[in-house]
Specification:
This protein has helices at residues 5-10, 25-35, 54-69, 89-103, 111-119, 141-160, 175-182, 215-218; strands at residues 48-52, 129-136, 164-168, 188-197. The chain has 222 residues and is of the alpha+beta class. The protein is globular and about 45 Å long.
Length: 222
């Protein structure tokens, strides 16, 4: 792709519709190897990655979709979002949600269509590769900070290979199903999932561009 670092970062977006085209093992391994150069305190490298393709991925998707369709919303093991929501975060959350639904022509009263859009998370938005990330349960917050840098590296390294991603916290709530399918022990916490594949740039959903604050709005210069 020959993207500059600035292009790779600035052009990254959460892709929500992928082509069915497969990604070869060597490409996935190369992305993970590059991402593993992320810094971590004392170089402990706290990440575990479960790479899903083919029938293993399909089997997990079937179980997750079945649970979702039955109204099972799962239960997260860690708190990701603020509780209760407060400003300015609530307004930002609502805006990105309504920007997405407006783009897709989903009215605010159409709860069924909203639910269907959320449901698409659980087949990785059609991507041929699904990633599930876990971390040792006893590791403290510093390792979670390191994990964030690792995840970002994956998303940027993927773009260099002509691939796109969507990080998906939604999987964390279904950790029990994921554990059972992938034989993940209770010593691990499911951090999140991620779709990885070739983006379908013709899909309307992938035309969403989210807003960002200017540095002058979030940085203090001394």
């Amino acid at each position: 792709m020959n993207l500059s670092i600035e292009e790779a970062i600035a052009g990254r977006r959460s892709v929500r519709q992928f082509l069915s085209r497969t990604v070869d093992h060597e490409t996935i391994e190369s992305i993970l190897a590059t991402a593993s150069r992320a810094p971590s305190g004392s170089n402990i490298q706290p990440w575990h990655v479960h790479v899903l393709q083919g029938t293993v991925k399909s089997d997990l998707e079937i179980r997750l979709l079945s649970a979702y369709d039955k109204g099972d919303l799962g239960a997260e093991e860690y708190q990701y979002y603020p509780s209760p929501w407060r400003e300015p975060f609530l307004t930002r959350r609502r805006k990105v949600g309504w920007d997405l639904y407006t783009l897709l022509g989903i009215e605010r009263s159409n709860k069924t269509a909203m639910s269907e859009q959320l449901r698409r998370n659980f087949h990785f938005f059609g991507a041929s590769v699904g990633l599930i990330f876990t971390i040792d349960r006893d590791l403290p917050i510093g390792s979670w900070l390191d994990y964030g840098m690792f995840l970002q590296n994956i998303m940027i390294a993927a773009r260099d290979k002509g691939l796109e991603t969507c990080p998906q916290q939604a999987f964390a709530a279904y950790h029990k199903i994921i554990r059972d399918c992938l034989a993940i022990g209770d010593d691990q916490i499911v951090v999140c999932g991620m779709a990885l594949g070739f983006a379908d740039w013709q899909a309307t959903v992938n035309k969403l561009t989210t807003e960002r604050l200017l540095p002058t709005e979030f940085a203090t210069f001394y």
